[in-house]
Design a protein that fits this description.
The complex is a heterodimer of chains A (193) and B (629). Chain A has a domain of 129 residues: Up-down Bundle (Four Helix Bundle (Hemerythrin (Met), subunit A)), CATH 1.20.120. Chain A is 74% helix and 0% strand. Chain A has 5 helices and no strands. Chain B has 629 residues and is an all-alpha fold. Classes of the chains: A mainly alpha (193), B mainly alpha (629). At the A-B interface, helix 1 and helix 4 of A face helix 1, helix 7, helix 8, helix 9 and helix 18 of B.
């Protein structure tokens, strides 16, 4: 039992994808399934009638702009990381994190706007669903911001550079996904509210 | 990229180095990151839950078979759940049924089966050192453990555990006033299931990543053992369906604790209207069964995969229709997601929609029949070796047929009106899903016990265990078909109010006695399992003379599975009794160029390709030697 095993991995694996990156994609699949099921539930429930009609808060438009902008700054940081431009990586990561937090604050104000319209979490499911969508997406976004900050910290430790892109790439994938997820939810609500 | 790769590799070997030196009781047996230990943890925990779940069923079977029995002797255990006149409390009966279902479906046949064998076999059979992420794997077990702990605690609270059936339909489960079990017990159920979902997803992500990324050289998808195909597709199903259960549970939590109305509408309690309006209880059913039906295949597919392997090995024949097996499993995987509403035929579903779901449901009979056909044709004229594992596999095929046939009845939306929620349904799924999967689990334990613990289980005790269980299962569940057709609804505490039911009292008594004997037979297994773990005959390296990679490891593989190089793979895993070959089995590690006497014409072509792999291997060996010196 106590033999020493030399860890020598063979040549290239059959599919050369980093296992952690692959696992991240699978995690994204689970998040997609959660939101797919919730939005389907929304449609199923809506088709049964007794549905509260109200206007979506305008602040959603600004938030969408913010999240798109944050994806752009993150991509800029990613390009900088490929070129080993450390100061630009840091600037890009800081900007993205700030925009991420700004989006979250914006979502909070969208809830306030909903309450102004007399749409509450407790009440007609039309409103409750909206709170669940934004709340659950917000929770995922918090995890995304934490991920951004982790990469930011490791960039200060000189651990993000063109030869060590795994964490950075995973962070970029996750963040773009969360941005895309919001755009999907917003579009879905625009078409189905 | 290349640099990064070496960097991670150095890190890995460093970790490993540390691990070997500091391995103490806690890191080895408790917070282990070794997939083999985690597999065993899942197995032992699964066995614990199987005993609990089985005992719960015996208690309600006593009530069903002997409604007038004095249960005073159970008071030391059940305390207040025995009424002053010595009867089982009706509320507790509902809790028993609910907990039996939850425990068996999720804790035993999902975690105990898929968790055990996916963890244990995937790295060993594809030729990997460990899972893609040992840490996530450990987390997966401990989330499961935590989930089990919470569920276990819920058994002992004053208001009793969740009691709304394992499907926990609202409004019954959503309103605390509905029944005692819908209070704290239901809350704990939901918390436990959340951890369970997290555990399944962590495990599933790991299984898929490992199968796709960490296969050894030469192990293409067309050379994967069918066990791995089954575990892989099971993980895919779980990955797609468990998040939906999470959504369903999340909305239920909001309804219960925050006062929303996703599932609740127009409910009056004691003449007073609840404030909730606009919800739809059928919405919950849609969400639940979108997981619930695939869950059936999460439970069944690993058992079918294990059976494929065990039957081929012990028939000393290649599995019949390897590709057809894979295609039918893929078919089952896809179809499992589009049939959920056949659980809802009587929920007021649009009858037209009902016929669509009926059509899709009946299509599943095709891949299932292909699999049965292939098992039978593999057995046909094979040199059958009746090991206990083999017997349990054949038992699985038997249940899969007898239970599958009744599925054709239930899948019909018209017949379902009569049979829905009767004992016919209970008989159907206990045979095809419960017993079949349980037999797959048992086949796996008997077959891979030598790899898990380095010792053999006693075969004679295994035979006794098999025959008692096999006959017992049929004696328990076959009569239930008749009871069901007669119209007995499931989940009823007693039928004494109905005149027609008197006719079946003796049949229910019979079922209960058979259930007690069948449960008793499992004690033989438990004894055999733990006795053999310490005192069993020491196993040879390849006791079943099997082809797959796990039998090329040492008797007690350490963390990393193979000392030195991971073997490369040159052929599919089912070269049994190949004409012309010296032995009746050729392990996957034997190159085609080493067996010119048995190669088929197209394999002779592959020999050239193979030379490249071998040249590669030698280059690595030379490099190692130079590194060492």
């Amino acid at each position: 039992m106590e033999e020493k095993y030399a860890y020598i991995e063979g040549a290239e694996q059959p599919i050369a994808m980093h296992p952690k990156k692959f696992a991240l994609w699978l995690f994204i699949v689970t998040v997609v399934m959660i939101f797919a099921s919730l939005t389907s539930a929304y449609i199923v429930r809506q088709s049964e009638g007794n549905w509260l009609e109200f206007d979506l808060p305008d602040i959603f438009w600004y938030n969408s702009a913010i999240i798109i902008l944050s994806s752009i700054t993150l991509h800029w940081a990613y390009m900088a990381a490929k070129k080993d431009d450390l100061s630009k990586i840091r600037l890009g990561m800081i900007l993205t994190s700030i925009l991420g937090v700004a989006f979250l604050i914006g979502q909070w104000y969208s809830w306030a706007a909903l309450v102004d319209r007399d749409v509450f979490f407790v009440g007609n499911p039309a409103g409750s669903f909206l709170y669940v969508f934004t709340g659950l997406h917000g929770l995922h976004l918090v995890s995304g911001v934490i991920f951004l900050i982790i990469v930011l910290i490791s960039s200060f430790r000189y651990q993000v550079h063109s030869k060590n892109m795994h964490t950075m790439e995973m962070c970029v994938t996750y963040w773009h996904f969360l941005g895309g997820l919001w755009l999907y939810l917003f579009m879905f609500l625009l078409l189905n509210h | 990229m290349a640099t990064a790769h070496t960097a991670t590799h150095n890190e890995a070997s460093h970790d490993h180095h540390d691990h070997e030196h500091h391995e103490n009781f806690i890191t080895k047996y408790i917070f282990s990151q070794d997939h083999k230990m985690i597999g065993k943890q899942f197995l032992i925990t699964g066995m614990f839950w199987a005993i609990i779940g089985g005992l719960l069923s015996l208690i309600f079977r006593l009530q069903l078979g002997f409604p007038d029995m004095d249960l005073e002797w159970l008071r030391p255990i059940l305390r207040g759940w025995i009424t002053p006149d010595g009867r089982l409390d009706p509320e507790f009966y509902l809790a028993l049924v609910t907990m039996h279902g939850t425990i068996m479906v999720f804790f035993v046949l999902t975690a105990g089966l898929s968790g055990t064998f996916s963890n244990f076999l995937i790295p060993l059979q594809i030729g990997a050192r460990d899972m893609a992420s040992g840490f996530m794997n450990m987390l997966s077990y401990w989330f499961f453990f935590l989930s089990g702990l919470i569920m276990f605690i819920s058994l002992f609270i004053e208001t009793g555990p969740a009691s709304g059936g394992w499907v926990v339909y609202p409004p019954l489960s959503a309103l605390e006033q509905a029944m005692p079990g819908s209070g704290l017990g239901m809350t704990l159920w939901l918390i436990a299931m959340t951890f369970f979902i997290a555990s399944s997803l962590l495990g599933g992500i790991n299984y898929i990543t490992t199968v796709i990324n960490l296969r050894t050289k030469g192990m293409s998808f067309s050379k994967l053992p069918l066990t791995i195909w089954a575990f892989f597709l099971t993980a895919v199903i779980g990955l797609l369906s468990f998040p939906v259960l999470f959504s369903a549970a999340l909305l239920l939590v909001f309804d219960r604790s925050f006062g929303t109305s996703f599932y609740l509408s127009d409910i009056y309690i004691g003449g007073e209207a609840l404030p909730n309006t606009g919800g739809s209880p059928v919405l919950y059913q849609h969400l639940f069964w979108f997981l619930g039906h695939p869950e059936v295949y999460i439970v069944l597919l690993p058992a079918l995969g294990i059976t494929s392997e065990v039957i081929a090995t012990n028939s000393r024949k290649p599995i019949f229709g390897y590709k057809a097996m894979i295609i039918s499993m893929l078919g089952i995987t896809i179809l499992s997601f589009v049939v959920w509403a056949h659980h809802m035929f009587v929920s007021g579903l649009n009858p037209f929609l009902g016929s669509i779901f009926m059509f899709l449901t009946l299509i599943i009979a095709i891949p299932s029949a292909v699999k049965v056909f292939n098992y039978l044709t593999t057995l046909w004229r094979g040199n059958l070796i009746f090991t206990p594992g083999m017997l349990f596999s054949i038992g699985l095929v038997s249940f899969f047929i007898s239970g599958g046939l009744t599925g054709i009845f239930l899948g019909n939306s018209a017949i379902d009106i009569q049979l829905h929620d009767t004992y016919f349904v209970v008989a159907h799924f206990h045979l095809v899903m419960g017993s079949a999967s349980f037999f797959g689990l048992m086949a796996g334990v008997y077959h891979w016990f030598p790899k898990m613990f380095g010792r053999m289980m006693d075969a004679r005790l295994g035979y006794v265990h098999f025959w008692l269980t096999f006959i017992g299962v049929y004696l328990v569940f076959f009569p239930m078909h008749y009871i069901g057709i007669a119209g007995f609804p499931r989940r009823y505490y007693s039928w004494t109010g109905f005149e027609f039911s008197n006719m079946y009292t003796d049949l229910n008594m019979f079922v209960s006695v058979a259930a007690i004997i069948t449960f008793g037979a499992q004690l033989i297994f438990l004894f055999n399992f733990f006795y053999s773990m310490y005192k069993g005959r020491v196993a040879s390296l390849n006791p079943w003379r099997s082809n797959t990679l796990e039998w090329t490891t040492p008797l007690h593989p350490g963390h990393g599975n193979w000392p030195g190089e991971i073997p490369a793979v040159y052929r599919w895993p089912y070269d049994y009794s190949k004409p012309g070959a010296k032995d009746d089995f050729i392990p996957q590690t034997v190159p085609l160029s080493a067996t010119p006497e048995s190669n088929l014409p197209h394999e002779q072509e592959l020999v050239k390709l193979e030379k490249e792999i071998i040249a590669d291997e030698e280059a690595v060996l030379v490099a190692d030697e130079s590194k060492e010196s």
